[in-house]
Structures are given as structure tokens and as C-alpha cells.
Amino acid sequence: MACFLFYDENFKTLDFGPGHPMRGDRYEKALEEFKKDGILEKVEMRKVEMIDEDILCLFHTSTYVEKVKKISEEGQGIIGPDTPGYKGIYEAALLSVSATIFGVKSLLKNECEVAINICGGWHHAFENTGRGFCIFNDIAVAGNFLLKEGVEKIMIIDYDAHHGDGTQRAFYSSKKVFTISLHQNPETLYPFLTGVKEEIGEGEGKGFNRNFPLSFNCKDEEFIENFKEVEEVINNFKPEFLILQMGVDGSKECFISNMKLTGESYNYASYKIRESQKKIGFELLSLGGGGFVHPMLGKNWGIQINNFTN
User: How far apart are CA 106 and CA 85, in angstroms?
Assistant: First the structure.
């Protein structure tokens, strides 16, 4: 079973600077942990080339894309809340989306069973603004790319500590894309305004959006109990393609949330997703998401990648 890990050393250019949680060294430090734990021996490393920027407009407005380009060229400006601009940010963000789309294309060509982009999973970005460290929403772009390619049943699972609000917004009226987010209760954590159980989709998409708000200081037992319900949803929906946002900022080591998860949660969820893949036969794209403390980040991403290689 081929598992492709898309990686480019220029991922490090996605860096908001000193004092900001999002630093560019997170990817190379994660790779060091992968190497220590033997993960790199189990995956095929693949290079990334820049995609046609028109693909961004499968989700984002052309006006917003041009805004990011201008800020990137001028080296100053605000892309959105918690998302400052800097010189070269457009190219850094486009490279991230490129890795995700290359993963999608490899899966559609049956070149691999699992594709991974640790510099992906930017679930807060809306079609017309960056938000929460996210510039371009590669998950939404990938989902719309798949729909354009004729894929009829897509599932997105997101267990980053924060609600996947941009992704929910992108597919809230679609019955072809089932979105699921497990996250710290949004009354106590960014983005605050969305992510409650009552948000189940609208129109044709009613019933195809599920939120699992987890308690402040959530531990493994609560996460796993909720994920058992997610397993049932996967097996009932039977997706053709599953996109996972495997963020680990709900880890007890990570300062950016109040959750207290350990590798046990990430091992359980990723193992069950891989089990369902073997049973149902869907393609699996896994994206990095949040996590800002080392070596926890590489360790907890690595636990999941290891399951996807078995």
C-alpha cells in the first residue's frame, strides 16, 4: 500500500514571525520526529510543484486572491483576523494548497491509497478572507475540485481543537459533502460563533453537517467516546473520498487550547479511519492542521501517519 507524503522545504516560508504560534520550522521539526520514529521508511516522499492559481477560485473569490497577492508583493497588510500579511505569503500559501491538490490528483489516479500534506488543513479561511492563521482553505478547494471531477460522496473529518468553520461554511448546503468537526466547545475557544450541535446543514445539506463540541479540559475518554459515533457516520455514509484534518492542538502539551488529549486519542481516531478505509475502500487525504509545540507535534502526527501505512 503506497502512502505518499508531499513535502517541500519551502513550507518553512509559511511563518508569521517571532511571537506568533505559526512558525515555519514546525514542518522540519515534525520531519525530524518522523525520522526518529521510522515513519519516513514507511512513506514515499513526493515533491510539490505550484498549481495553476485559478484552482484557488474553486472556493475563493478572485478579489480576495488578488488582495493576498498585493499584500504579498508589498510586504504589509492584514489578510484577516489573527492573520497578518508579509512579503511572500501568497507563494507560501499557494505552495500549501498545491501539496493538497497534488495529493488529491495522486489519489484520483490510484497512485496511492493515502496522501498526506502536513502543511495543509487551513479550515478557518472563508471564501473572501483569511482567518485564524489560515490564508487559503485548501480543504474547501480540494472538496470543490473533487466535486468538479465527478466524485459524488465526500466526507471531511476535522479533529483540530478549533471548529472547522470555514469548511462547514463551504459545504453547509451540500448533500455530497458530509462535514464533521470534533473540537473544544466553541463557547470557550476560537472561533466562538460556530460549532454547536444544532448546526446540521441547510437545504439539501440538512443532516450532512455534524459538530461534536468537547468539554473544556477534554481528556482521551471523552474524545474517544465521541469518535465512536463518528465511526458509525463514516460507515453509514460510505464516502468515496475522505479528507482528514488531523490537527493535534488539542494535545495536553499545546498552549493554544484547553484540551488535554494524548497520543491515545489520535491513535484511536486514525486507526479507526484506516479500518473504515479498508472496509469501504475510500481514498484518504490527510492534512496537518494545528499543533504548535515540539516534539509533540511530530509525535502525534507520526502516530496517525503510522496507522495509515499499515
Answer: 31
Output the furthest CA–CA distance in the chain (Å, rounded).
50
Report the CATH number at residue 18.
3.40.800.20
Query: Which tens digits make up the pLDDT trace of 99-141?
Result: 999 999 999 999 999 999 999 999 999 999 999 999 999 999 9
Phi (first) and psi of residue 126, to 5 degrees: -90, 175
Partners of 116 in the β-ladder: 5, 286
- Measured between alpha carbons, how far is residue 171 from residues 64, 174, 264, 278, 308 in Å? 19, 5, 30, 26, 26
Cell of 69: 497577492
Ramachandran category for residue 203: left, alpha or beta (phi over 0 → left; psi -120 to 50 → alpha): left
The x, y and z cell numbers of residue 105, run together, are 490528483
Active site residue 124: yes
Which residues form the domain of 224? 3-308
Query: What total of structural domains would you count in the chain?
Result: 1
**Inter-CA distances, 218 with 184, 258, 265, Å:** 8, 8, 11
Q: What nine digits make up the cell of 292?
A: 504548535
Which one of 123, 124, 162, 163 is the catalytic residue?
A: 124
| pTM given for the model | 0.97
Q: How far apart are CA 186 and CA 190, in angstroms?
A: 6
The string of pLDDT tens digits covering residues 216-238 is 999 999 999 999 999 999 999 99
